[in-house]
Design brief:
Helices cover 49% and strands 15% of the residues. With 464 residues, the protein is of the alpha+beta class.
Amino acid sequence: MVAAAAVLASPGAALAQGTPEQTTPSSSTSTTSSTTTTPPTSPPTTPPTTPPTTAPETTTTAPGETTTTAPPEESTTTTAPPGPGSPPPSISNAEIEKLRSGVDGLTTDELALLERYLDTQSKVSEAQKELVRLSDQLQSLNNDLIKAVNQVREANDRFLDTKRRLEEAQAQLESHQQRLRNAAVEAYIGGGKGLSSAAVLLKAVNVDDLTKSKVYANSVADDERELIERYTQLKDQVEQLKAEADTERAAATRARDDVSDRQDAVRKQTELQKLAAQQQQQVLADQVQVMLQIELKRGDYLARIAAQSRTSDSVEGILRNAEAGQPPPLTTIGIFTNPVPGARLTSTYGPRVSPLYGASSNHPGIDLAIAQGTPIAAPADGVVLMSEYYGGYGNCTIIDHGNSIGTLYGHQVATLVKPGDIVTKGQIIGLVGTTGYSTGPHLHWEVRIQGQTIDPIPTLGAPP
């Protein structure tokens, strides 16, 4: 390493700018994946949905008569709680695309499991919305049914009132008809009641009789006129009430038919709600199964994170030994070029939560997603310390750049350098891949000072 230190003296001098405060790595970034406590395992629950109470179905069998039948069977949905384990956090489609592009910590199978969980989560949400929508519709139909039942009752009441008034008018009409018939008979037989005034006066014998007969005849004439006028009025009233009764009877029939239609709608809506509740139970059951699988894999994931942390500690040891005696850099700002220009930043440096397990860990570098086989260029001059398959890093290369600065390149499909090689800035050192713990082709890139990780972004002259 003496020769290596001599070769790197020039690059180190070139980096010696700025202030020492900019170069000190955070002591909290000394490990790759310092696993923290897994969040409490509280299963998600979907609030139970209970359909509104269905109104009794009242059907008019004939004007003035109603029968009450049992309401359609109600459907009460109770959401079963999911199984054990903490659910994965909510994650957007854009974030899923980033995961597909490449991220440390998840395998391809685990990403597929995450997508299955998110799919069931979406279906549960949609099923719940559909159940609420159907419940609202059922409530509206029940309200309409209640209104229709009230309309039937009101129509029946109006019909019965009209029928009663018609019967009274008909009775009065019949009474006046009888009186008219009696008057006509008397007039025909003996010139009694119902005769004209002249006929009465001719029967008078003396003045007293004449006076009395004249008064009587006038009163009889007046009574006849009133009787005939009242008869005519009652006859017209009866005809009008008959028309009203026909109208009210038709309205009651329409209202009865409307109730029947709305009862059918309530029954159909109740069946739809039952079906939606069954579908919700099925997607909940599917989600529970996925969560059980996630829980079964959680222990393996945590063990893998612990192993990655130990691997990161060993990388720190490799760099500390190689850089022993090297001075710390005065600055790290903008000292490197992008090892994979055009790549997309899919995961930043620092603490992060697993999108599948919810467990916290520390991401010791950044992930730069780009097509598999893309060349990886050395961001500065240096010496290769290691180039081999190395745990979760997959095919991994470590370079010492002098001044206690080291870089690491993980998940390569192939490495193109070997330990001891002296590389220059821009030299191709490997090809982007997805070896190790990775869900897609990308470069995992770390920057370390005295073996401890720092955020690589500020070290780039042009951020990705």
